[in-house]
Design brief:
Length: about 375
């Protein structure tokens, strides 16, 4: 007698259970933190510059510390046996790889060329000097957009998966696969799309960011979960440890935003019109990639818990690597570097919007909320609004 795979069709509009007051208004806190970061960067520029200068291979150590505390509470909740099971279900992973490497880079070129290279070109006729070559700001901004398009996110998507009540085991597998793919595909794709034979790939930045942002919190999560289960028990882990740990991830996310915008706030304040013009193609690209991946997941018969992270990973960018590459190729004050900073500016608010969209459209998919229940005690009742 064979057992059928349980498929739950959710009658609820949203996935997951009630959000706390803090989580419910997360978008508001994000906007406040962006404003606080920019203000602090303006009032205390030397402090911001000192902190920003604390880096190894262009990987910011203060940001690395914040991201560790953002990732660790998520990693420690993951039932790693579910990650092993997820690796045996390749369909969402294949979908993510196809979108990230065969679709997203080229649609980014199309959006950037149409808006920055044609529609907004009359507003971007100024030039800048890059390595003794004069280029228009339009072309420099396009280069920065392309660098964002070829750098899939490998860290913060765990936060988006956590907030959307999706399968974190599968998210972790997809993040690992994307991290490896970026090591091999980032350089040749960047050379081709930028038509730059002398593209300098920040290998140290890529490897170190993957190790720090994903590897360290993953190792800490595996070890501490094993130790707590062995010496304290699962009940203590779920009722005591997670109770105090849960707010840390979101607090670390907000502190990360304060630091990022303290470091880069001067660029944003000094270029308001150009920020707006760059943001338009980036915003449209993010939503377009999310939509086609989400719809593809539905057509492929994925359940919500796997389709949501696939779409969120496809939509988001590894802006740390993009910024580092832009700085190494074109310089700190280049238009390309500014374009990658705009990627940071719009990424978090837009991704929070898409997370909310996922939760409200969960009923479009078959449901297996037990995948998320294993990871997050808030998901005890998957039908509760």
């Amino acid at each position: 007698m064979t057992t059928q795979k349980p498929v739950i069709n959710s009658r609820a509009v949203k996935a997951g259970s009630q959000l706390s007051f803090f989580e419910k208004y997360l978008t508001l806190w994000v906007i406040i933190c962006i404003g606080v970061g920019i203000t602090l960067g303006r009032i205390f520029p030397k402090i911001a510059q000192t902190l920003d200068g604390m880096s190894v291979y262009n990987v910011s150590l203060p940001i690395a510390v914040c991201l560790f505390f953002m990732m660790y509470p998520i990693m420690v909740k993951i039932d790693f046996s579910q990650a092993v099971k997820a690796a045996r279900t390749p369909k969402p992973v294949i979908l993510t790889l196809v979108v990230n490497w065969l679709i997203k880079p080229f649609t980014m070129v199309v959006f950037a060329q149409f808006f920055l290279g044609w529609l907004f070109k009359p507003l971007l006729l100024e030039t800048e000097l890059i390595r003794e070559t004069t280029v228009t700001l339009a072309n420099s901004y396009i280069a920065g957009a392309i660098l964002l398009g070829i750098a899939p996110c490998t860290a913060m998507v765990l936060m988006w998966g956590y907030l959307s009540y999706s399968n974190q085991g599968h998210t972790l597998v997809m993040v690992a696969v994307n991290s490896l793919a970026m090591l091999f595909l980032y350089a040749p794709l960047g050379k081709w799309l930028l038509s730059a034979n002398n593209l300098v790939v920040p290998w140290q930045t890529i490897v170190l960011s993957v190790v720090i942002y994903v590897g360290l919190p993953l190792a800490a999560g595996i070890f501490s979960r094993y130790w707590i289960f062995r010496y304290k028990g699962r009940k203590w882990f779920e009722t005591q440890f997670l109770h105090y740990l849960s707010p840390i991830a979101i607090a670390a996310l907000l502190l990360t935003l304060v630091l990022l915008f303290a470091f880069k706030g001067e660029l944003i304040v000094n270029n308001p019109l150009h920020i707006f013009l760059i943001a338009i193609p980036l915003f449209l690209q993010t939503n377009f990639i999310f939509l086609i991946t989400y719809v593809a997941g539905q057509k492929l018969g994925l359940d919500y818990e796997d389709a949501a992270p696939a779409a969120l990973i496809g939509a988001s960018n590894h802006f740390e690597v993009a910024i580092a590459t832009a700085v190494m190729l074109f310089g700190l004050n280049s238009g390309a570097a500014l374009a990658t900073v705009v990627g940071v500016l719009i990424e978090v608010p837009v991704m929070l919007m898409l997370v909310e969209f996922c939760k409200r459209t969960a009923s479009w998919f078959p449901r297996q909320p037990e995948k998320a229940t294993l990871l997050d005690p808030r998901c005890v009742n998957p039908y509760q609004n």
